[in-house]
Here is the input.
Amino acid sequence: MDLILEGIRQAIHLLFTLDPEVLGITALSLKVSGSATLISLCIGISSGTAVALNQFPGKRLVISLINTGMGLPPVVVGLLVTIFLWRNGPLGSLEILYTPTAIIIAQAVIATPIITGISMAAIQHLPRELRLQILALGATRLQMVWILIREARLPLLAAVMAGFGGVISEVGASIMVGGNIKGYTRVLTTATVMETSKGNFEVALALGIILLILAFLINAILTHIQQRERPR
Amino acid sequence: MKQNRLWAFFWVLLLLGGALLVTAPASAAPVQKNIILATTTSTQDSGLLDVLIPIFEKKTGYFVKTIAVGSGQAMAMGAKGEADVLLVHSPDAEKKFIADGFGINRRLVMHNDFIIVGPPSDPSGIKGAKSAAEAFKKIAVSGALFMSRGDNSGTHAQEKKLWKAAGIDPEGQKWYQQTGLGMGQTLNVAAEKKTYTLADRGTYLAMQKNLGLDILCEGDISLLNIYHVIEVNPAKWPKVNAAGAKAFADFMVSREVQEIIAKFGVDKYGSPLFFPDAGKPE
Here is the structure.
């Protein structure tokens, strides 16, 4: 119990003294996971919507694959991305292993199926008549898609929060493709693991608390947008 | 006109995703500037590299990517040409690494020692054992719990050597447990379960105050923990940053760095964590 109290004390201390290393790690976590979520959001919402609205052979299989992708073990994603990115691998010439970009890529791979799957379910949930109604009112196909996305705003934002939550807390892939390099690819989760393995439990707890605070702030903003009353 | 705007918006949204992916690699540093250093968790956890790397980077302008894994994984990375230089402490595996042609210029850098730690009650009575192998034998015979790292690290390799010297095969025995984790975490598990374990002095000292494990055997010559720096062979892997690797290796054995190593840890722990050895006969 004292350990947890000590961890809270350390977290407050680190935040109030604006400890530069911790600030840097926090900013990097936000930048990396934020970018990954943004990329996944673009790919995920568009793909999810496309799959939901169209009929094609093998649709059931594709849906199953996307749903399986939601449970992709991050550490396996990390291993696969590493194999692609290392020097002698297919994308080795890009020189992006052990850079923040690599972490963004790995996290995007993890978050995209999550956002795709939930978006897909969100759009599928909309009443079929709505689609016909919008088209009957003279909308183009593209306008219809946009209106449907707006209608499904609630679950779609939930999808984004799920995607963000999945990657801000991810550690296995981030360590593997990022290398946990001090001041360069060290994020809150990888730093927490390192401090734990060194036995610095109070620092590890403090970092964990800061991570929770960060995740809470982001989700509070997203929730506010999600729960806003629709203009009548 | 609303239609055009909508179209434009949609395209922007899709392109945004692509753009973020494409622009990022353009900002990667040119290849010669980066050095991938594969090293062990003990050198990172001790904080020694946090002191040395910035000095090296300032002096040479290289950017060192320190990837701290176990010696086994570090050498596997070197064998695949995915690292430029290694700082490891697993002599037998290193010799094989050189013999297989994966590494060149293996140079002695420093040493510290391993210690056998355990619960203060010392159930197997190993305190005062004449050699580490004898202590291991006592543990095996008494069936007291022993925590191994089990991760092919330098520490694990040394531990296996000691079991061999004691004539014991611990694999599969009830009292022999393996964590597969780093030194710090293994020490924590050992402390929690009140078992014996083999640790490097540096990590033990750094964690001592919270642990509750005592040093029960030390000083034996078989407990020496020797660190070498090895450059990955550019003949085998042309993409390796050979100049950077050599610069780093030269740096580690340079007189100024050896002096820093000699003083490292004294103010915090009362004794240095590592002993510089560059240039000495093996």
Remarks:
- The longest strand of chain B covers residues 103-118.
- Chain B touches chain A through 45 residues (CB under 8 Å).
- Confidence is low (pLDDT under 50) at residues 23-31 of chain B.
